[in-house]
Amino acid sequence: MKKVKKKINSAILIIGNEILSGRTQDLNVSFVSNWLNVNCGISVSEVRIIPDIEKRIIFNVLDLSKKFKYVFTTGGIGPTHDDITALSISKAFKVKYGFNSEAYSILESYYGKTDFNISRKKMAKMPAGSKLIYNPSSAAPGFKIKNILCLPGVPSILRSMMPNLKKYLMKGPLTHSKSISLHTYESHIAKDLDKLQKKYLSRIDIGSYPFFRSGKVGVSVVLRSINKDVIKKCEIDLLKIIKKKKLKMYKI
Questions:
Q1: Domains in the chain: boundaries
Q2: Bridge partners, residue 98, by sequence
Q3: Tens digit of pLDDT for each residue in 149-202?
Q4: N vs C: which end of the chain shows fewer Cβ within 10 Å?
Q5: In three state form, how does the secondary structure of 16-82 look?
Q6: pLDDT at 53 (0 to 100)
């Protein structure tokens, strides 16, 4: 994995009617986002959820591929009729959709020739020129074409495949964070945080997140940056604000 100093952005495209209907809860976004930052220094800047509709998949794949270094898709690469991600991506990039010989061999070996039926064979079909993302859980591989990396939607299977992404990714600087929780309201510190954000501009991201714990309302202020020194300086300024306003910090 080649390391670069510049921040690397990515997007996640969740494909599946079951997510939009509410029947299935998405468990992949937080895991993928955290894994990418911790292991590769890649930040997720956008997440989209779309149905299993060919035109929608094509549009979003092409749109996101132009805007981000990497696009990670989840869902739609299984054996059923509505698993159309691979076919749609083939059409998006105008390449042939067909059997990947290596994927075919992996699946045939896993299921055995007798049980390797038409539906299971479908999982060996993908855009021509794809590179495989190996699957240690259920054999059916994901694939990479251009800057699109396609993963299954089942969380346990997806998680087992993540380490096999590394060889395809450039490594950027890790995003570090510092969180301080306060017994206060967002409105009470909003102007101060706005001034603090303007002072540090794009060098740091400052977020405020309200919470309710043990019957008390509070706010967690989170500082994020690829530069630890900037976080430290910003933290010092934040502590001055806390002292001036006589706010109490929440201790877990």
A1: 8-168, 176-244
A2: 126
A3: 999 999 999 999 999 999 999 999 989 999 999 999 999 999 999 999 999 998
A4: C
A5: CHHHHHCCCCCCCHHHHHHHHHHHHCEEEEEEEEECCCHHHHHHHHHHHHHHCCEEEEECCCCCCCC
A6: 97
Residue among 141, 123, 121 nearest 132 (CA): 141
User: Top-level CATH class of 8-168?
Assistant: alpha beta
Q: Write out pLDDT tens, residues 35-72.
A: 999 999 999 999 999 999 999 999 999 999 999 999 99
Domain boundaries 176-244, corresponding CATH code: 3.30.70
pTM for the complete prediction? 0.88
Helices 186-200 and 228-244 meet at what angle, rounded to 10? 140
Give the C-alpha separation, 191 to 187, whole Å.
8
Q: Give the three-state DSSP class for 114.
A: coil
Give the C-alpha separation, 102 to 95, whole Å: 18
Q: Which pair of tokens denotes residue 6?
A: 């510049």
d(CA 175, CA 39): 11
Residues in the chain: 252
The residue type at 231: I
The residue type of 236 is I
Q: Which residues, in sequence order, are bridge partners of residue 149?
A: 72, 144
Residue 214 has pLDDT above 90, yes or no: no
